């Protein structure tokens, strides 16, 4: 614990005004606290070298949310596969609905977003009030729990995709049959439910764990997750082809012909990665702690005097 005094002597934490934009000191990443302690001879220390408590806590928030952010990359890798291989998968299937009309395979990507239009209001009006009675939480479940549910459900999207691709491939090679394109709709439906929890929950989490001015930065991290997820998708395809390459075959995804490739095995691999990612998320979220000044209903959330008293207690003033 830091020991400081009210005077302007050495080793004093830089004075801050106690308003609603101040963050309370926390004990995580304590090595960063050195940034807000004056040097022994630092009467006119440069503001580039001396930070306020709030500035240090903002850096702690950014560092603490990075593991949560990283756990959503695999989720967006699954999204990348649904927008690429699933379209290729649909193009090999029967797209005819009625005579003279065929459904474009790429149009199935709209299913998750159409689901969000109907499922999100249902979630807010039915599931949240029910969860409030059970958990006592104002939002029903916490944003971190919401993200966790979404990451878990995303695994079943790939399980569904692998099972359907296996059936499609067997039907095409051994029975000379073409399955209907609507067989791949369940994987989009499941992912739509997953996205309702993960994407919305992540944005809600970032807004609740940031001050005004940080919200835009943290929200931008969600879009960085999309970028990393799609980039990881390309890397995985290349790695899988390299590892599964043999003298007689170029790899699971090398022929650009799904009847020769093993897209179903690739989907199973993604399902396994998604499940591992979920357990990694559970581990990371278990050790995550909210800053008390940002927690709803927490001490010092709205009362500047209580905030100052809490800081004085933390710093042993």
Automatic annotation (TrEMBL):
UniProt main location, coarse: membrane
This protein's UniProt keywords: Membrane, Transmembrane, Transmembrane helix
Entry GO terms, CC: membrane
Bilayer disposition of the protein: Multi-pass membrane protein
Molecular function GO terms recorded: transmembrane transporter activity
Subcellular location: Membrane
PANTHER family in UniProt: OLIGOPEPTIDE TRANSPORTER-RELATED
One Pfam family it belongs to: PTR2
Alphabetical list of SUPFAM superfamilies matching this protein: MFS general substrate transporter
Organism: Gossypium harknessii
Taxonomic lineage: Eukaryota, Viridiplantae, Streptophyta, Embryophyta, Tracheophyta
InterPro entries associated with the record: MFS_trans_sf (IPR036259), POT_fam (IPR000109)
Protein name per UniProt: Protein NRT1/ PTR FAMILY 4.4-like
Transmembrane segments: 61-82, 143-164, 184-206, 226-244, 265-283
Keyword Membrane: yes
Protein family: Belongs to the major facilitator superfamily. Proton-dependent oligopeptide transporter (POT/PTR) (TC 2.A.17) family.
Secretion signal span: none
